[in-house]
Amino acid sequence: MAAHSPEQLNQDVLRPLVRTSWRFYLTGGILGSIVLAALAAFIYQVYAGIGVSGLDRPVFWGFYITNFVFWIGISHAGTLISAILRLTDARWRRPVTRCAEAITVFALVIGGMFPIIHLGRPYLFFWLFPYPSERGIWPNFHSPLLWDAFAISTYLTGSSIFLYLPTIPDFALVRDKAKGWRRKFYGFLSLGWTGTPRQWHRLEMAMRIMAVVILPVAVSVHTIVSWDFAMAPVPMWHSTVFGPYFVAGAIFSGIAALIIAMAILRKAFHLEEYLTPFHFDKLGKLLLLMSLVWGYFIVAERLTVWYGNESPEMAVYWSTQQGRFTHLFWFMVFCNLVIPFIILSIKQFRNSITGPVIASTTVVIGMWIERFLIIVPPLERKYLPYSWGTYRPTWVEITITAGTFAAMALLYMIFSKLVPMISVWEMKLGWRQEAESPQLVTSEARLTGAVPSADLPAPEN
Amino acid sequence: MKATYGLYPNPDSAERAMNRLRSRRSALGFEVRDICLAASEPLDEYDLGWREQKTPMPWLAALGGLIGGTSGYLLVSLTQRAYPLPTGNMPIVALWPTGVIVYELTMLGAILTTFISLLISARLPRWRKTVYDPAVSEGKILIGVVNPEEATHADLVKTLLEAGAEQVKEYVSS
């Protein structure tokens, strides 16, 4: 590992904020075009009506709600993982947390749009808000859909604050080094931070409280998303296992998204000295663990249904085992269980960055399919066979879905041009603490860059 | 406001400066509260004034949670009674659905209270000019005295330098 220092860290992390290559504009242009195409498809859907999508009786939750559940799941990458790592004082978290927390905020924003996109008349979405009106109606507090609105709003608010708080000192750092409009912009964002003892003490206290509070919120959010399904009398939805099953799946897909985002940031912004193979190894182990947990839930859920042998549930069960969703089901198992297990259980693969990235990519694909298979097959095979049907997505839904992936990448790109993607002050704090406690100078410290190379004792031969 | 401050390369020298300023404050004619400090990272392990800090923030967060939860209950119960839905002889205000909303708003209350109490207690945002030096962002630690007495200014500068200051500077704001 090349020698680096606090000054070098400043330069490396702040460089992307002031220098922009042609690749950034090219990528932004491509992603922006896809987002515009999705916007055009959505406008067409509003103009022509929801009939241009594949949503029809009995399947009214297709791609859109799949995307909703998927993106809310991805949002568990950041705040939840970051809070756990902060509370357990995992030293290797320092270069990772901001990359993770940013994913949460953007994934929530994107996921939160889908309940509105899938409305037949999205321009009347404000009817969902609780306000006294001449219609004399009020949102139904007994409905999990309304619980969703409260849970996601709370999580978005908390995650945005959780992302912003540790960024304040870094905004001050950028302010001190910037000129012109950037100085004013970052001066505003830093709130006039000067780093007095009082400010540091209050910030650390606020971060500790937030980490404690945000964890149960994160768990509740995906539990409540699962209750959108579990509270409904639909075969294979009405299950007590759905809460933990959804939370586990969310953490699983969230870690995968984080690994992919970190790999792209590392390559694009030359952060090789800070986002090291050690971090990918650690996250790879977490991903492997969650893959096995996810597999456990799949087996538990399917085995219980099969053993119960109730005909409505078996109709759904067989549609994913022998019916038209069979290939999709086994492809999902291959993506979420087989590939990650092979790659991440072998140390040589896990220690390379390519291995975890490949596994994460398959997991993201697999988890999107998993959300689809949770939603669509049960709706196609409800209790009464006369209401059975078939769902096929149209180009409108496919375009909007592609647009959300592009929007996520675009938002993340723009964010990474405005905000230091590694917490500079936390890195420096880690270096100093490790340097002052030689017993902490371990191989982990070497790999993570927790101590500037100049301060490390020579490695033993 | 005026200030005289030194820029220190590491926490050890900053701690030395702080101790010397505290011990010589009578001779130099200022109070402990006149000492100013700025750093680019928290220095909890050093005797630089962090240890004296106390804050009711955790209690305020709990209070915020309580207010949030109470608001949640009132929102759900009052509005459900004002706009009753047919529930087939089941309770209009049911325990479990109400609990979910109360839970989420309890957490929201705690989150917002934490953020607001941080802003208030850390005195942010602070747009007025205050004692600061951009070198703090380079890792230097700023320690100085606000509104020092003219008569002992030379002694103050000497004290700051003796403690290991790389530079001693003056800050003047209108």
Describe the protein's architecture and organization.
The complex is a heterodimer of chains A (461) and B (174). Chain A is built from 18 helices and no strands. Chain A has 2 domains: 305 residues, Formate dehydrogenase/DMSO reductase fold (Up-down Bundle), CATH 1.20.1630; 37 residues. Chain A has 461 residues and is mostly helical. Chain A is 70% helix and 0% strand. Chain B folds into 2 domains: 93 residues, Alpha-Beta Plaits (2-Layer Sandwich), CATH 3.30.70; 65 residues. Chain B contains 5 helices and 4 strands, in the order βααβααβαβ. In chain B, helix 3 runs antiparallel to helix 4. Chain B is rod-shaped, with a radius of gyration of 26 Å. The model of chain B has no long low-confidence stretch (mean pLDDT 89). Chains A and B meet through helix 1, helix 6, helix 7, helix 9 and helix 17 of A and strand 2, helix 3 and helix 4 of B.
Structural class of chain B: alpha+beta
User: Overall pLDDT of chain B, averaged?
Assistant: 89
Q: What is the strand tally of chain A?
A: 0
Order of helices and strands of chain B: EHHEHHEHE
**Coarse shape of chain A:** globular
> What is the structural class of chain A?
mainly alpha
Terminal Cα span of chain A: 16 Å
Can you tell me the CATH architecture of the largest domain in chain B? 2-Layer Sandwich
What's the domain count of chain B? Answer: 2
Unreliable segments of 5+ consecutive residues of chain B: none
Mean pLDDT across residues of chain A = 89
* Largest sheet, strands/sense/barrel of chain A: none
CATH architecture of the largest domain in chain A: Up-down Bundle
Could you estimate the helical fraction of the residues of chain B in percent? 40-55%
Number of strands of chain B: 4
According to CATH, what is the topology of the largest domain in chain B?
Answer: Alpha-Beta Plaits
Number of H- or I-type helical stretches of chain A? 18
Q: What order do the SSEs of chain A take from the amino end to the carboxyl end, as H and E?
A: HHHHHHHHHHHHHHHHHH
The number of distinct helices of chain B, counting runs of at least 4 residues, comes to 5
